[in-house]
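User: Before I run my own analysis I want an independent prediction to cross-check against. Here's the chain; please return only the structure tokens and, at the end, one sentence I can use as a sanity check.
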Amino acid sequence: MTQDRRRFLKATGTGLGALALGSTAVSAESTRRFIVDRQSLRSERDVEVVHELDEVGLLVVRATEDVLVGARYVPDRQYSPRLPHTGSRSSRVEYPPEGDDLYAYQWDKQDQQIPATHEVTRGEGTRVAIIDSGIGAGHPDLEHAVNADLSKNFTPDPHGAPGPFGGAHGTHVAGSVAANDQNGSGVIGSAPATELVDLRVFSETHSAGFSAWLGDVLAAIVYSANIGADAANLSLGWTFRFRDGWGEFWGEAMQRTTTYANRQGTVLTHACGNWGGTLQFDKDQRDSSETAGGLTVSATGPIGFKWGAEGTEKPAYTPAYYTNYGTNAVDIGAPGGNFAVDAPESSGNRYYDLVLNTVAEPEFSEDGEYQGATYGYDWYAGTSMAAPQVAGATALVKSVNPSYNANQLKSTLKRVASVPDEYNKKYYGSGYLDTYSAVVE
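Assistant: Structure tokens:
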């Protein structure tokens, strides 16, 4: 594979049609988005329905607040995630030179014994939903995996799905789950034989920039359960406080949605966030994973992989400097990448401690028309990178135990995990992910 192909593999065309929304005519100037308890709403005539979530008794609507009087509802919100700081892009490690095996840079897959795991299963017969910014399904390492017919755009933009229309983040997450291990080049994923479904909730065309409506996220979770996804990855990592105006109905809406997914057999893998804070919240606060049906994932990573003066100075299970934590909030720790904050800028290859995987960079014209994408690979870090490690592991366990329900899948992953002796349990919950043991136990 040439250097050009390794870095910018090819461009893709435009995506599928936009998601069709409700047709009720409501003035955009006077409306806002809300999540509403459908049973409590007196009439739907004066609202524009964005998403009908009958399975959990919810509507996502555009309406004026006066028509919701007497109903149980909460304003919908937009959320913009952030990856942790890992230095300026100008000091980022270059792509490996011609002829290098990219697996050699995947400390995360080496640590999880993924090639040995593939001798047992590659994730055959499973399905993983990626609730994110979109998947570059034309990437040579992913073109085998994405189910275009089931993929769906939940955002208000017109770009459809599959496609990396909200940025490169979702493609990196997808590669960690299912990048091809049999195409003779590129990177590998944990479960390359699983089927991926692109459920896009992030859009660069929102007024708030790169962001997601959380009502769209709830809709994507319900859809994941309805299509029989064995895992749905949410590399979101957001929190809210009731006192900040979110309203207590937020917690109930999330609880209904995630409980439904769990009952349908879908394991939700949640990134726990990247601001290095505690998730041991008081009763006034909630986060995206503090509900039924999921595994909350913290991030770990090495220091010195391929660049340490005396070899790798800290192992792959080391808590990442940015990861959130909490003894009763985190369920499991997994490779998400680390960064030697105090290392000199001359240590350029310290980026090897981040997670290497697939990316797709979308390109738009000045008027917002999608022009295609360039495909390649990049190093990212974050709990966003840790969560899909667990989603991939879930698919592998399901593949060898097809009768397992969501609770059994979660229990297996937590049972074989262990907390490293030198670190506090608050970083790991049940322990550090052990993909190989979960498959062969």
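Sanity check: The longest helix spans residues 383-400.
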